[in-house]
TrEMBL record:
One of its GO terms (biological process) is carbohydrate biosynthetic process. This is N-acetylneuraminate synthase family protein. Gene3D superfamilies: Aldolase class I, Antifreeze-like/N-acetylneuraminic acid synthase C-terminal domain. One of its GO terms (molecular function) is N-acylneuraminate-9-phosphate synthase activity. Residues 302-357 form the AFP-like domain. Pfam families: NeuB (PF03102), SAF (PF08666).
């Protein structure tokens, strides 16, 4: 898979997406600035911290949810009682705002601009702004929307939260029916806000990779970040080439997606830990490495004379000990050395070499 100029499968660090979503509205209110200014500030902070892409959400509450849609998130963290009520608070951005953010991002930072379309209109106006389309888990069964996205012939990042393999398979076939050789990333996701760590089930990433070896596997995370960003790091261990994580500038803000989001420092920690993990992974085939050369020679053992051994004397087992360094005859050759004759006198504690016997 390739997104813009990034070869996703040809790099060691995962392609990291900062899911800004609609968190900029809360940041704007907190800092008494415009939502557009807050959005740009969040892009700047995420890009500087080291992400590959920033992602927003393009929706209209009227097109997304019925006024009678019940919530499915933790209401102790987000107290809004209906989906429509929540979404209607954060749907002020449209074509003009996203065009400005996308253009501003491309001009100032080497990161990709992405946004998840939640309706047909958003698919159309995002076409010239995004290098790839992200599909939310909740729309994996929205085949009409998938078809329209597939026809744009761009990479598709498909979240699979709360989905069966059968549902994923049908979504993949819908995309394949519309475009030849599509580029698809299947993002493992748990559709629980926030996701309890024991529910993360990161082993499912490998399962997606096994079932769909022709496509890229990734992870969309809703687990509250820990100090070491262990959940995201574990997703890399389990094969995630693309990672999406909600992003905020203040994790203490109430509501929406701040309570399970990463901040700039989390991004830096994650990148540093991935570099460390890659560095410590090293060679995949077991063999001695150059740094072990001295250890192989001096930390191993040799056969050593336990007593004085006279020239021509047949060497007995009790005349031999096994000591460091390993510069002489290896203990592996003990049975071959016993009963051989000494070519010359060997003083006690001398290391045996083949020239001496």
């Amino acid at each position: 898979m390739q997104i813009n100029n990034t070869d996703i499968d040809g790099r060691t660090q995962p392609y990291l997406i900062a899911e800004i979503g609609v968190n900029y509205f809360d940041i704007a209110e907190q800092r008494d600035i415009s939502p557009l200014s807050a959005a740009k500030e969040m892009v700047s902070e995420a890009a500087t911290a080291g992400v590959d892409a920033v992602k927003f959400q393009s929706y209209s509450a009227d097109q997304l949810a019925s006024k009678h849609s019940p919530v499915y998130w933790d209401t102790s963290e987000e107290s809004t009682e209906s989906q429509y009520e929540l979404f209607s608070q954060y749907d002020d951005f449209g074509v003009a705002e996203f065009e400005e953010i996308a253009t501003w991002t491309a001009k100032n930072y080497n990161v990709d601009f992405l946004s998840t379309p939640f309706d047909f209109h958003a698919v159309e106006y995002l076409e010239d702004l995004v290098p790839a389309y992200k599909v939310a888990s909740a729309d994996i069964t929205n085949h009409p929307l998938l078809r329209q996205i597939a026809r744009k012939e761009k990479p598709v990042l498909l979240s699979t939260g709360a989905s069966t393999i059968g549902e994923i398979d049908k979504a993949v076939r819908v995309i394949e029916d519309e475009v030849q050789d599509p580029e698809i990333c299947l993002l493992h996701c748990i559709l629980q806000y926030p996701t309890d760590p024991e529910n993360a089930n990161l082993g499912m990433i490998d399962h997606l990779d096994t079932v769909y070896p022709e496509y890229t596997a990734g992870y969309s995370d809703h687990v509250p970040p820990d100090d070491g960003m262990v959940t995201l790091l574990n997703s890399v261990v389990n094969g995630a080439a693309i990672i999406e994580k909600h992003f905020t500038l203040d994790k203490s803000l109430e509501g929406n997606d701040h309570y399970h989001a990463m901040d700039p420092e989390d991004i830096r920690t994650f990148r540093k830990n991935v570099d460390r993990m890659i560095a410590t992974t090293g060679e995949m085939k077991k063999k001695p490495i150059p740094a072990e050369t001295d250890s192989r020679e001096y930390a191993r053992r040799s056969l050593v004379a336990a007593t004085d051994i006279e020239q021509g004397e047949e060497i007995a087992r009790e005349q031999l000990s096994i000591k460091r360094p390993g510069t002489g005859i290896s203990p592996m050759m003990l049975d071959i050395v016993v009963n051989r004759e000494a070519r010359k006198r060997i003083e006690a504690d001398n290391i045996l070499t083949w020239e001496l016997i």
